[in-house]
Design a protein that fits this description.
single chain, alpha/beta, Aspartate Aminotransferase, domain 2, Aspartate Aminotransferase, domain 1, five-stranded mixed beta sheet, binds pyridoxal-5'-phosphate, Cys/Met-Metab_PyrdxlP-dep_enz, EC 4.4.1.11, PyrdxlP-dep_Trfase_major, Methionine-gamma-lyase
Length: 409
């Protein structure tokens, strides 16, 4: 398993276009014709290999992209969706029926949190939110109705790392499914290597990397993917978060450079994190030995891809955070925007944006402070230049004080 190399798997895929093109042809159709009515029926039932019926069911380009992502996550199969939330909700609604129970990390993407906390109880599916690395509290939360442990391999926005080996052990012992959102650490972490059953990504972020579309995927066994696409009972088939073929084509092309981009994002984030920490700023980055999950992450990553492009800075107050972000944007160091994985650095105040679904008291108790800025570090060619310009901004707004920091070298 240690030898599994996702970038090689993606590189080795060959898909040719209809006329010998080096890229596969986009099938620009929602529906497909048949010469025989019998084949149409068989296709509807999912029994006619290589035939397409209707593009919500499947389409050639979506299958290509899904196959490439299954290669990346080392699973038998995958299914692409119109958004990351489309993948998360389809998977959880497929796995859980009325009366079932989910155990979820309490530090997860705000949309996922809102779905589990507010939406699923309407269908009589309850969730216990836990500290994902407190294994005792996890075991205590397990009931006869528990079906799933849900977590993010690296969590949003606090960059907590889940111990997937240990979680998978607990899941095996209690016959639960381990479902992992790997959006923050594509290529760096391969959750299936540690025993994850389903791996989910928001393709919107690093995998597509150009902030021009939303998209999602879930990677799992062929049997599970088939269940979600079943015309009578499949959550994804029936809820219908279908990705468009034109988009799956553009995402597939971007996926091919993911390995290069991730290395640069990680390199740049590490460079800034190390220096800002030395300057005395409150930085959290799993690549720093001071991060509480540094050793754990080190034991799980494919080292060449590093610790990822996300870091957080506590600016103290929302006002200071806002002032700093506005100044950094004015200095063209990045954009005041949510999301991640873009070529430009993106920054946002988590408590006031992507984690605002989490109630204030809960945010405070898990450590999302009001002045917490999440940075998605870009692909900057000259990160030293960026560091100096960012530091000037921090001095200017007083997030960093001159006396604490004598040498601006
Ligand atoms: C963005 C994000 C999602 C949701 O994805 P969409 O594509 O916006 O639906 C889910 N999980 C994580 C960790 C994310 O960052």
């Amino acid at each position: 398993m240690e030898n599994f190399n996702a970038a090689n798997e993606i590189q080795d895929l060959q898909y040719f276009g209809e006329f010998g093109g080096v890229n596969p042809s986009i099938s620009d159709s929602s529906t497909y014709t048949f010469l025989s009515a019998k084949t149409m029926f068989d296709t509807f039932e999912g029994n006619a290999e290589g035939c397409y019926l209707y593009s919500r069911h499947s389409s050639p380009m979506n299958l290509y992209l899904a196959q490439a992502l299954a290669k990346m996550e080392n699973t038998e199969s995958a299914n692409v969706t119109a958004s990351g939330m489309g993948a998360i909700t389809s998977v959880l609604m497929q796995v859980c029926k009325s009366g079932d129970h989910i155990i979820s990390s309490r530090t997860i993407y705000g949309g996922t949190y809102a779905f589990l906390k507010n939406f699923m109880p309407q269908f009589n599916v309850e969730t216990s939110f836990v500290d994902i690395n407190n294994f005792e509290s996890i075991e205590n939360a397990i009931t006869p109705n528990t079906k799933v442990i849900y977590c993010e391999s690296v969590s949003n926005p606090l960059l907590e790392v889940a111990d997937l080996r240990k979680l998978s052990e607990i899941c095996k012992k209690h016959n639960l499914k381990l479902i992992v959102d790997n959006t923050f650490s594509p290529l760096s972490i391969s959750p299936t290597v540690f025993g994850a059953d389903v791996v989910i990504h928001s393709l919107t972020k690093f995998i597509n990397g150009s902030s021009d579309t939303v998209g999602g995927v879930y990677c799992a066994t062929q049997a599970f993917i088939d269940d979600t696409k079943n015309v009578n009972s499949g959550a994804c088939m029936l809820l219908g978060p279908t990705m468009d073929s034109l988009r799956s084509s553009s995402i597939l092309k971007n996926l091919r450079t993911l390995h290069i981009r991730i290395k640069q994002h990680s390199h740049n984030a590490m460079y800034l994190a190390e220096r800002f920490e030395k300057d005395g700023l409150k930085i959290s980055y799993p690549g720093l030995p001071s991060h509480k999950n540094h050793e754990l992450m080190k034991s799980m990553i494919h080292e060449e891809y590093g610790y990822g492009g996300l870091l957080t800075l506590d600016a103290g107050t929302t006002e200071k955070a806002n002032e700093l972000m506005e100044l950094m944007q004015a200095e063209n160091l990045g954009y005041l925007a949510v999301s991640l994985g873009f070529y430009k650095t993106l920054f946002s105040c988590s408590g006031k944006s992507t984690s605002s679904e989490i109630p204030e008291e809960e945010r405070a108790s898990i450590g999302i402070s009001d002045g917490l800025i999440r940075f998605s570090i870009g692909l900057d060619h000259d990160i030293k230049r960026t560091y100096h310009k960012m530091k000037e901004c921090m001095l200017k707004v007083g997030v960093l004080n001159h006396h604490e920091n004598i040498s601006i070298s």
